[in-house]
Here is the input.
Amino acid sequence: IVFLIITALGYFSRIFIGQLLLKFFERILTKLPLISQVYNTVKQLVDTFSQQKKAVFQEVVMIEYPRKGIYAIGFLTNQAKGEVQSLTGEHLVNVFVPTTPNPTSGFLLMIPKKEVIPMQMSVGDGMKTIISGGAVTPPFEDSNNGLESSNDGSVSIDSTTGQSSQTQSE
Here is the structure.
């Protein structure tokens, strides 16, 4: 019994002291100008996703947004339900399109499922692509036509013709 009491006291004191230390360092971090913004953003993301039993973002998708011919990467979050589904009469899905470089804000779009293009990249790779403003993209090999992409290409647009060209850096 003495062993159990000592073990329980040690466990609870470790938790209590740990929480005090965490709050102390958190207060310091929130007072530092640049670090506080980064810390608060990361903390908000971690808190949001660690509280969920299932993944908030089910898969990475591509949609034509904000108009035809322009594409955006988003995350499928759920099927549209309730009043939204009833009013439209279409099979809609909820897609969250985060802003770059701060993915904690963005747009919730309810889109017909037939207009959503599933992507093969992981949710983590999709998030990296968005946060980096497209500078970081995962390697991809198109099994349909053998096309391969990597991160070492750069794109430039000729201001006189408006044509884009891709160059490989070595």
